[in-house]
Structure formats: structure tokens, C-alpha cells
Amino acid sequence: MVTAASGPRVILVTGAARGIGLAVVEGLAAQGHRVLLGAGDAERERVAAAALAGDVHPIVIDVTDPSTIDAASVQVEAAYERLDSLVNKCGQQRRLGAAAQPDVARRNPRRLRH
Q1: Which residues contact 81 (CB under 8 A, 6 or more apart)?
Q2: How many whole angstroms separate alpha carbon 15 and alpha carbon 37?
Q3: d(Cα 48, Cα 41) in Å, to the nearest integer?
Q4: CB 2 within 8 A of CB 31
Q5: Which of 51, 88, 100, 114 sits between 20 and 30 A of 19, alpha carbons compared?
């Protein structure tokens, strides 16, 4: 819990516009932290942040795009002068063709025997 003496921690949560990331943002905000709701879609972030109670602010950051990481860093420094914590809850799922899938049986045949 945040106390008046310590002030709110500035916490960036990536992948936070929905699902588990959004739940993490909600929980941190409920504890009194200043939470930066980060994702790659500015409109989705804005809508998600507006729907939550607490000190929640949208920030565009796509961890696969270095330019958005740099821009977010500059924005956080300018607005808050620090970042106390990072919750990196982002992931990227890609469907790969059969040729790109590892051949588990060939690489580790014992794994299939257990």
C-alpha cells in the first residue's frame, strides 16, 4: 500500500490494454500507484485507461518497435522524472508454418518417451 510519505510509485505495465495486463493495471491502481497503461494501440489504451478508477495513464509502447520504446522513455522522463517499476506483460504470438516448427523428436527423442 502506498503511504503519503512515500508517494505513488510510477509503474509501467506493457501489454496492458486487455486481459491479464489490464487486471494488473487495475490492481496496482487500486493500491494507489500511478500506473502507465502501455500497449501498441493508442485508442485501445485510452479507452481502457478511462474505464479504470485511479491514477492510470495511457502510453503508447510496442516492445517490438524500438522507436516507441524510445518515445515512451522520453515521455515518462518528461512527465514523471522517473520510472519505479516495469511489469513487462506483453507477448507476441505468431503462427509458424510446419517448416519453422522445431522437430522435438529429432532434437530430444527422450522427451517423447516420458
Answers
A1: none
A2: 8
A3: 11
A4: yes
A5: 100
Of 93, 91, 85, 72, the residue nearest 27 (C-alpha): 85
Is residue 1, in this structure, part of any structural domain at all? no
Q: Look up residue 69 and give its amino acid.
A: I
Query: How many Å is the maximal CA-CA distance in the chain?
Result: 59
Q: Is residue 71 part of a domain?
A: yes
Domain with residue 31: its CATH number is 3.40.50.720
Number of domains in the chain: 1
Q: Which three cell numbers stand for residue 51?
A: 474505464
Range of the domain at 77: 10-90
The three three-digit cell numbers of residue 60, written as one number:
503508447
DSSP string, 16-40: -SSHHHHHHHHHHHHTT-EEEEEES
Angle at 101 between CA 97 and CA 103, to 5 degrees: 140
Q: Is 95 domain-assigned?
A: no
